[in-house]
């Protein structure tokens, strides 16, 4: 087993690159075709027998996609911060939970859900800014101590949040216009009298998914198409060189940290409305972020999206088809990724 | 240092008296720990003494990995928990699930063996990446294990876990009684401590430290870096596993709460507060944390203990990266220097010998 680990970071030989890519592309196309058929076709009985029912399967897929959207919102901040600052922020789950609580308080106080979302983002962005300026700048370049500090912060934060909000479960109420369910144009079954049963799905979850995609595209554009994005990417590659070329890296760091923390807070409000807000959620989303970025690759937005998709789908499909072993599935995915590609799917070589 | 006349560096190894071999500090500490039961109440004996030693052993396994191998693990409590679950499943429990009732001399070695294998497995996953990633991966592993034990009823009996785990009665002594339990913990902790001290000066220990300092160079010289690291994980697993057995006897139960993220972080906190430089650090940290845990009620109330411990942890990380040991190094009385110096020189000497042969 020792030898296997040493031989894995073998670079792909240049000549094979194209054919291999074509092979992967073809495989993906076939998979996509099968998937499209599974979504729109009438299922034969044997398929229903294997996968319980079309409705269960499609619900699992949709729930998985929604969860993936949520995971992406949390993990994208984590991966941005890590990629730029080499700072593993293990208090990221606490930021999520704090965002959820603040969103709840604001939504209750003002009566507007959107204000809760905005507050979750803005206040957590300020918290992130303060953390960066007061804590991480002092320990720059010392990975281990930064990480230890974030662990300490997460312990204190979890305890203080428990003290203030107690152990009860909160539910952030979504406004009228986001509630209810919609019928999707997907037939799950045909009754004996010929009427078609359409798939019904909560509208809010679709909104979560769409907003995650919008934010993801926005982040990608920010990182790849703007000036500050160019600075961030340059900082990921070579921090010292960026500083030497006249950019105030501390401002860039602060912006990125605020953005990352803000996204965690936003995800907290959004996720707290879809699911619930309770102590312990911080650990859940920290684990999700960790696994997503380990699988997807550190410091890559696209990687976070891919990782979130894989983990979200795996978790929900696991929940439906092998309930007590769902976590193991997530775990196996992580281990397999580490075995085949230790730097993650989209992770660059360091 | 060369100005110390009694330094073992200048004497042939055979001529050292046993006091010098052990070190005065060790002898005094050992004497104190041996007569501790005579002056402590049952509460102080078990809840402080025994518990600190058990936590110290788990943290020692982390210190071994972090201090000598540069691999900071958050999964040590998971390894201890693995041993605990083996004890619950193969021993006797009150939960009515499994509990095969095997004799202790079968399931205790089995528990430690399985724990060490679990540790090696976690290590094998974790050493695929380096540095800061190890924390992330071990945290992910520990969290996943926690959720898995919580959901799985077939093997781990889910949320309630296992109750009524009793220490065995051997030689007519019930080993969970305060005094026997204390001495049992003390013996195991001493064994682990001595093993780590010895191991650090062995060829393997020095190789591991060299790998920590420069893995690339060691790989180039021809050492199998991965194998050395995984072996270190296996050794750490032995210590954590033994501590895990003691831990379930101490608690009388094991549940997912025992291996949750909180306790996992607690182990790291103990090791960092104590210091990762020397194997005594984790035990120091364990005593400090256990005392704080017990007496925090008087300071800020039992509820907010985590805030206190978190703040102390933050303070330590900020002002003294080497924990209490680091503080001691900075402010220790001048007379105390000899012991540590001789230890260092001895390490260097034995080390050089080990490398040459």
From TrEMBL, chain A:
Its main location: membrane. InterPro entries: ABC_transp_permease, BCAA_transport_permease. GO terms for molecular function: transmembrane transporter activity. Keywords: Amino-acid transport, Cell membrane, Membrane, Transmembrane, Transmembrane helix, Transport. The chain crosses the membrane at residues 21-40, 60-83, 90-107, 113-136, 148-167, 203-223, 249-273, 285-311, 318-340. It is found in: Cell membrane. It is a multi-pass membrane protein. The keyword Transmembrane applies. One of its GO terms (biological process) is amino acid transport. It comes from the Bacteria. One of its GO terms (cellular component) is plasma membrane. Belongs to the binding-protein-dependent transport system permease family. LivHM subfamily. This is Branched-chain amino acid ABC transporter permease.
Automatic annotation (TrEMBL), chain B:
The chain crosses the membrane at residues 21-38, 44-65, 72-92, 104-125, 132-149, 181-200, 221-250, 256-276, 283-302, 308-328. InterPro entries: ABC_transp_permease (IPR001851), LivM-like (IPR043428). It is a multi-pass membrane protein. GO terms for molecular function: ATP binding; branched-chain amino acid transmembrane transporter activity. GO terms for cellular component: plasma membrane. It is found in: Cell membrane. Keywords: ATP-binding, Cell membrane, Membrane, Nucleotide-binding, Transmembrane, Transmembrane helix. It comes from the Bacteria. Signal peptide: none annotated. Pfam families: BPD_transp_2. This is ABC transporter ATP-binding protein. CDD domains: TM_PBP1_LivM_like.
